[in-house]
Amino acid sequence: KAAETREQAKGSYLYYKNKPLVREKDTICYGDFSERCVLLFEIMSYTEKNGLKVPGKILIQVLESETGAILKQADKNGLHEAFTYGMFWYEKFLSEGK
Q1: What is the β-pairing status of strands 52-55 and 46-49?
Q2: How many beta carbons lie within 10 A of that of residue 56, not counting itself?
Q3: 3-class DSSP assignment, residue 83
Q4: What does the alpha-carbon distance between residue 60 and residue 77 come to, in Å, rounded to a whole number?
Q5: Up-side HSE of residue 51: CA atoms within 13 Å toward CB?
Q6: Which residues contact 45 (CB under 8 A, 6 or more apart)?
Q7: For residue 13, what pLDDT is reported?
Q8: Does this model's pTM top 0.85?
Q9: Which residues touch 71 (CB under 8 Å, ≥6 apart)?
Q10: What are the tens digits of pLDDT across the range 57-95?
């Protein structure tokens, strides 16, 4: 298995519950890659509310940090609903250990 290595991005990060929350374009990643898993959100569509473009359909994935294997996946409407469900699964997998 080939290990993928990436240089850590320069700059400051937004942290939530002492873990980085990073967005690049339509992808949002939450978590620490040194732990069992990370949480990934992919914005699949946008809607307009009050003249603003806001995320619509969101793909949620809990990925195993080492292999990138999908542990759990679903889609939800809106970032709030996606984040609520994703955090529940993410914390559940972390608490179960390996």
Answers
A1: antiparallel
A2: 16
A3: helix
A4: 11
A5: 0
A6: 55, 56, 57
A7: 79
A8: no
A9: 37, 62, 63, 64, 89, 93
A10: 999 999 999 999 999 999 999 999 999 999 999 999 999
How far are the Cα atoms of 39, 41, 78, 90 from residue 84, in angstroms, in the given order?
12, 12, 10, 10
Residue 43, CA distances (Å) to 16, 54, 63 in order: 19, 10, 16
Element (H, E) at 93: helix 79-96
3-state secondary structure of 88: helix
Which residue matches tokens 């984040």? 83
The pLDDT value recorded for residue 1 is: 43
Burial 59-68, CB ≥16 within 10 A → b, else e: bbbbbeeeee
